Amino acid sequence: MARLAGVSQTTVSLVLGGNKQGIVIQEATRARVLEAARTLGYVPDPAARRLAAARNNLLGVFSFTATFPTAVEHSYYRFLVGVEQEAAARGYDLVLFTGSSSGGAGAGAPGALDRVRLADGCLLLGRHVPTEPLRRLVADGFPLVSIGRREEPEGLAWVGADYATASAEVVGHLAGLGHRGVLLVREDDDAPASADRQRGFVEGLAAAGLPAPDGTVVRTARPAAEIDAAWVRARYAEGVTAFVAEETDTGDAWRALTSAVAGAGLRVPDEVSLALLGSPSADLSGQPEPTGFDIPRAELGATAVRLLTDLLADPLAEGERPSAGLVSCGFRPGVTVAPPPRRAAP
């Protein structure tokens, strides 16, 4: 091409590369290079351009779940839909890091997270994330965005659902119907998503002027074993008319609660109301739609991609804090909540 245009190879590179250096090139010279390129059928090599820019236009997705969430029924699938659509719109390809899946190296294994450096930046999925490997990546300035609120490590950017506000809204709805005895069942872990739901639940009780005695929040490591028909009947006898459960990856709290209420012979919502802080698992879709809220998973995935690509386009200055943000959840009326039944005076 240089020979055909009668110029040096350096001049060809400057013209075809957009002359970002600002070197003065005569318009006639530039026209000869472009004409030679058209004559030879030159097409820019995207791979070469990316290598020259030390970028490959790849966004990583690393999941800390037991299996990578590619099945449609998986609760994380909608996150990936939003991620894929937004990445494509922004001209990025995706690489899925499956080392934490069954049979893989495991997310906590030495060096497992270092593989994400193959991408320009990486999105993180999962309730429980190993802090130390992430801290090293953050300290190195590698662009990371967690889908889900994170308190650790400091300096990690994240996008999360506003579980606290949504949970408080569900409690306010129950209080507005006349419920005075409301109880939350959650799994026994310290994931930020669970903590946010509990905080919103308690704040919702306070805003409605409802009491929060000991036992208002029940943390259980084994929902199926600890939440049974006898337990539900005892709580109902104490005046609880509305039971609330959190959504998790497994859905164990909601499964145990609905099963226990059915075993106790209580009719929903005529005798007792049930609410779910999230959406039911796909395999429970045939059951009556629970009152609660919907998590905007696709929107969260897309928002995380936008934040990550913004970080890639404009890296943070040393000492600058990364962005973080909450996305609102939509209230779901459902059919599992009604005013509490009138009880005869003792």
Automatic annotation (TrEMBL):
Molecular function per GO: DNA-binding transcription factor activity; transcription cis-regulatory region binding
Keyword flag DNA-binding: yes
CDD domains: HTH_LacI, PBP1_LacI_sugar_binding-like
Keywords: DNA-binding, Repressor, Transcription, Transcription regulation
Name of the protein: LacI family transcriptional regulator
Coiled coil, from the record: none
Family annotation (PROSITE patterns): HTH_LACI_2
Keyword Signal applies: no
Occurrences of domain HTH lacI-type (ranges): 1-53
InterPro entries associated with the record: HTH_LacI (IPR000843), LacI/GalR-like_sensor (IPR046335), Lambda_DNA-bd_dom_sf (IPR010982), Peripla_BP_I (IPR028082)
UniProt cross-references to Pfam families, sorted A to Z: LacI, Peripla_BP_3
